[in-house]
Design a protein that fits this description.
With 393 residues, this protein is an alpha/beta fold. Helices cover 59% and strands 10% of the residues. The chain contains 16 helices and 8 strands. The longest helix is centred in the first third of the chain and has 27 residues. The chain is globular. It starts with 11 loop residues before the first helix and ends with a helix. 40% of the residues are buried. About 1% of the residues have low confidence. The structure holds adenosine-5'-diphosphate and magnesium ion. Magnesium ion binds next to helix 2.
């Protein structure tokens, strides 16, 4: 995952927009929210964003989020750490003069003291929030961002870009009195309001949008939304054919079109099927439609193992019955139908749905509906249950 493709298909519009956003700083600060199902190409796009920003002179720091960041103190440490990395990158820049080194050293000292105080909070964290703790953290987050930006400016860099992947794992919890996302958005919005050259790209599953909106209602206006799905024609075809052409491999156009049907035009699926076909047909033989037809069952089986089964392995058998009830409707289902079909008591089914959502397997695109986070997961579940019933006959 996140592997740089030989040919980056269907991303010209996103990259052009991102270039414009960069050029708009500092007068018109903007942030980007990239959402999409698993394997649609979010991480690859995030890396491209990072590279474009670096080429334009920006200081870029990347991070892959995890559940631990749902705790304020750990979140704080992570952001301070990212800001420290930004300061260090700036101080390595050639344009950095003696006087600026002092700016960097002061910033590093202060960030170091934040880390120590936040580490103390981690140890001493109480379920009952002490008054005064929350504003203090927001202040630390803001100051960290300010220090990172000041160092970048001292190095004559246009700004600091934060690229955070898997950001759907960030969320606030009233029950646990942990509001890292809200504090972060507040600190970030303030930094941009005060003219600091800082930009945020958050990337994740579609639940990211909801988590952000719940943390801060103004988040909707803070981010430019990029929603990724299947690669669009004619680029979907090129995602498959260009790498073959570039490497001088011969193939039938009919085979390439059939691959699009198998893959539904999803980036990961296209790369996966391409890799298997490449290996299955001995170089330098032409890859034909017959090759695909003959290997279709093994290809699907390999796809199931690589992409789907690993995810299903993390579910209990009752959770699976809910997934299968969903799959009966396709890739997305009305909750009402799922409840009816699973024949579980309403409350049990709702609990199972919540658990599957926490495991990142499904989400609610709108009220009363459920969708798989993995593209073509419903297709897989129907195929798998046919196997099971076929096997027992
Ligand atoms: N625009 C694209 N064109 C062709 N292949 C792509 C594209 N974007 C991603 N891929 C390929 O699809 C796979 C999944 O991409 P990744 O960025 O990891 O997806 P996500 O982060 O959304 O799960 C990788 O093998 C990657 O090389
Ligand atoms: Mg990814």
């Amino acid at each position: 995952m996140g592997l740089e493709p030989t040919y980056l298909a269907d991303r010209a519009p996103q990259l052009a927009r991102f270039q414009r956003y960069l050029a708009g700083f500092p007068g018109l600060p903007r942030n980007v929210r990239v959402t999409g199902l698993r394997g649609v190409g979010k991480t690859v796009l995030l890396q491209r964003y990072g590279r474009l920003a670096e080429e334009a002179g920006w200081i870029v720091v990347g991070r892959e989020c995890n559940e631990h960041l749902q705790q304020e103190a750990i979140f704080g440490q992570a952001l301070v750490e990212d800001c420290r990395r930004a300061v260090e990158q700036s101080s390595r820049a050639l344009a950095f003069k003696q006087r600026s080194q002092q700016v960097a050293q002061k910033a590093l000292d202060l960030l170091g003291s934040f880390t120590i105080s936040l580490a103390g909070v981690t140890v001493a964290v109480q379920p009952n929030a002490r008054p005064g703790r929350v504003p203090l953290l927001e202040e630390q987050l803001f100051t960290s961002l300010r220090l990172a930006c000041e160092s970048a400016s001292a190095a004559h860099r246009p700004g600091v870009l934060f690229c955070w992947d898997e950001a759907h794992l960030l969320r606030d919890s009233g029950n646990h009195r942990q509001f890292p996302l809200g504090l972060f958005l507040a600190a970030f919005a303030r930094a941009q309001r005060e003219g600091l050259p800082v930009m945020l790209v958050l990337c994740g599953l579609p639940t990211l949008t909801d988590n952000l909106a719940r943390a801060k209602s103004y988040s909707e206006r803070m981010f430019q939304a990029e929603e990724l799905g299947q690669l669009r024609p004619p680029e979907d075809l090129l995602a498959f054919t260009k790498p073959l052409e570039l490497s001088g491999r011969k193939f039938d156009a009919e085979m390439a079109r059939a691959v699009l049907q198998v893959t539904g035009g999803y980036a990961f699926h296209i790369q996966f099927v391409g890799a298997l076909l490449w290996d299955a047909v001995v170089w330098p033989l032409r890859i034909t439609k017959a090759d695909l037809d003959q290997r279709r069952p093994t290809i699907l089986e390999a796809l199931d193992q690589a992409f789907f089964e690993a995810r299903l392995a993390r579910t209990s058998s009752t959770e699976r019955s809910v997934l299968r009830a969903m799959a009966a409707s396709g890739e997305s289902a009305q909750i009402h139908d799922v409840l009816k079909l699973s024949r579980l008591p309403n409350q049990t089914a709702q609990q199972l749905i919540a658990r599957l959502r926490d495991k990142g397997l499904i989400y609610r695109p709108q009220r009363g509906r459920l969708t798989f986070t993995v593209p073509l997961f419903g297709d897989y579940l129907r195929r798998a249950s046919r196997h099971v019933s076929g096997g027992s006959e």
